[in-house]
Amino acid sequence: MKFPFDASFEPPFPAVEVILRNDDRDRRTGVLPALLDTGSDGTLVPLNRLWEIRAAALSDARIHSHWGEERRVQLFAVDIQIVDTVLPSVIVVGDDQGAEIILGRNVLNKLTTLLDGPRHVTDIK
């Protein structure tokens, strides 16, 4: 399935649509935009989205930004649906600062993804 890059960024950012799921509690979000970041080790999800589906909190952790700053975060387990593919029990960082879902390599390495920069399209197979 093909998704257009998010043109609200300059340059446009690769993006897909996801659904966050917590099947244990029969909760899920609607379709949400998610940015693809091949430079991010992990996936970040705004805390309000995790609370919306009552995601299971796992533990606290420390993360380092690309600027070298460190902060404490909470890790959660969620199912992430992209098109017809459901990735179960993905460990994500609950982000209390950002508004976007950022899909990092822990998700991207499980997908066949083509970033077509000249056409500004992401293709998930």
Order of helices and strands: EEEEEHEEEEHEE
Second rung of CATH, namely the architecture: Beta Barrel
Computed Rg: 14 Å
**Number of helical elements:** 2
Low-confidence stretches: none
Supply the number of structural domains: 1
Overview of the molecule:
There is one protein chain. The protein has one domain: Acid Proteases (Cathepsin D, subunit A, domain 1, Beta Barrel), CATH 2.40.70. Helix content is 8%, strand content 53%. The chain has two helices and eleven strands. The strands form two sheets. Strands 2, 3, 4, 5, 6, 7, 8 and 9 form an eight-stranded mixed sheet that branches. Strands 1-11-10 form a three-stranded antiparallel sheet, with no helix packed on it. The chain is globular and about 40 Å long.
